[in-house]
Amino acid sequence: MKQNTSFLRKFFLYKCLFALAFWSPAILSVEDKLFTSLSNNFPEDGSNQKIKTLPLLYTKSNQSKANFDWVVIQNTTENLSLSEITNYNVKQLIALLSNFRQGSRLQNLTLTNVSVDWDALMEIFQTVWHSSIEYFNINNITQLSDIESYDFDYSGTSMKALAVNKILITDMYFTQDDIYRIFADMNIPDLTIVDAEMIHMLCPSSKSRFRYLNFSGNELTDLLFQKCDNLIQLEILILQKNKFESLRKVSFMSSHMKSLKYLDMSNNLLRHDGADVRCQWAESLTELDLSSNQLADAVFECLPVNIRKLSLQNNHISTVPRGMVELKSLEGLNLASNRLADLPGCGGFTSLQFLNVEMNLILTPSADFFRSCPRVRELQAGHNPFKCSCELQAFIRLERQSGGKLSGWPVAYVCEYPEGLRGTELKDFHLSLLACNTTLLLVTALLLTLVLVAVVAFLCIYLDVPWYVRMTWQWTQTKRRAWHNPSGDQGAVLQFHAFISYSERDSLWVKNELIPNLEKGDGCIQLCQHERNFIPGKSIVENIINCIEKSYKSIFVLSPNFVQSEWCHYELYFAHHKLFSENSNSLILILLEPIPPYLIPARYHKLKALMAKRTYLEWPKERSKHALFWANLRAAISINLPKAAENCYEGID
């Protein structure tokens, strides 16, 4: 019963495969754990399409018997994928591949998870080499036995590209040339060996057909291909994720590759300290990737002069030095993830069209970038810690004028400083023109200052401010001397009923009318007059201040002559100062003659204020009213002064 079930399964599978087999059949031997992916080029619609993967699953055959299942596959298959290749089925694999001689339709072969001895691995390569296969991919190789020298036959191949991904070598003691020479002398256009922990590769023994080499993810160092003159057709070289350290040695390596156009040295340990070390690159090199290394500003002294595309992303570059070698052909420059503080100029990049400076340390980009770089069509400057200030306003205006040249705008352009604006997109950041235009701000401030100075000067002249300042100073000095001379006159003791201030031109009225009428009679009124009471030896100002302080009232005889007198102005000022400092009502104004307003100088604004707010006595022209005038005046200054009474009694005696 079990035999019948097994027979039915095999019969059904054979029938399915036989339905695909017609025209020029080829023989395929399949054993356990061997799978195939088939493709054909004769679909129903006549187009060249792949059919679905067809796994060929069998129970394990009795190894003591040569019991193999044979399946017919048409020779129109172009793509074949096999996995789980071991020492148990490698002979069947080699037998299978031997059927695809040159002229067959099979072009693409992929082997995955290959775990075989060295001789079996070389036999697989050798068989594929002489087959119709043009593109051979082999992944996850484990070499089980000792590596020995192998005489590889490189003649008569259809191979165009070989890709080897991940190799595990169990033999720890072997001659490296035995394995490196096999690959170095493969006379094919494309060779890829990645993630193989390869520490070296030999220079081809003769002029090589290599046009594409990819040795990524290995352990290669600066010793690779030094003084190698046989890679004359090589156009693309990818050496990323290795252990290269010297940019100068890399340049010398490339100088022997006369056709090299693209070189990828990213994710290495490259440095260049300058020190007047001259670099020498292949003149044909137009695209260079030096990203994710340890390069600083000195790298610009060691670059190919004909380079068109250059990537220096993720290095330690802080500035693009001026006066470096000009890169007149450079069209694209990637400086992202460095330490730039500003946009670089285009003095040495006259053909620059694309610039990437994202994720640097740019706070306020230069607003004149597009003027110095007129050919730039795209600028990527986002994801920088922008400082939103007046300096940044010009860059924001530049974006509006650039016509969309700022890539990533506005999402990638966000304020980082100050903290209050963090997260704000630059398009939403605005400041007034006055706040950001230093010249306009200075001019405005200067104009305001000039206006203020002019107003102050006008007021000083109109109100005679210097005169008041001088008077205040003299008042202060007089008071200070009085405080420091306590033995002098006691200014706090009142000696007079009134101090008389008048113009010398009105002295006749004062002497003939005012003084006699006030001091006569029983009132015993004592008046202070400068002619008889000023103390010789003291200054006029000091005498005025002392007389005003020793008088109960201050009588001012107002007339057109009064406003023309400088000393009268002094006396009025000091009396007015006493009025406010002592909060007293000590002023008496006598209007001897009417004073037209136009005659009162501007500095007599206090007099104008007093005449407008205070009641004054007007000298009557009618003689009949004189008695009432004197009575009112005596009443205003009437007070019992002990010192004045003492003087009065002495006079009577």
From TrEMBL:
Q: Which UniProt keywords apply?
A: Glycoprotein, Immunity, Inflammatory response, Innate immunity, Leucine-rich repeat, Membrane, Receptor, Repeat, Signal, Transmembrane, Transmembrane helix
Residues forming the TIR domain are 494-637
State the Gene Ontology BP annotations.
Answer: cellular response to bacterial lipopeptide; inflammatory response; innate immune response; toll-like receptor signaling pathway
What topology does the record note for this protein and the membrane? Answer: Single-pass type I membrane protein
What residue intervals traverse the membrane?
Answer: 440-463
Q: Where in the cell is it found?
A: Membrane
The source's domain of life comes to Eukaryota
Coarsely, its chief localization is: membrane
Q: Does the keyword Transmembrane helix apply?
A: yes
Q: Which PROSITE patterns match?
A: TIR
What's any one GO cellular component for it? plasma membrane
Q: Which family does it belong to?
A: Belongs to the Toll-like receptor family.
Q: What is this protein called?
A: TLR6 protein
| Gene (UniProt) | Tlr6
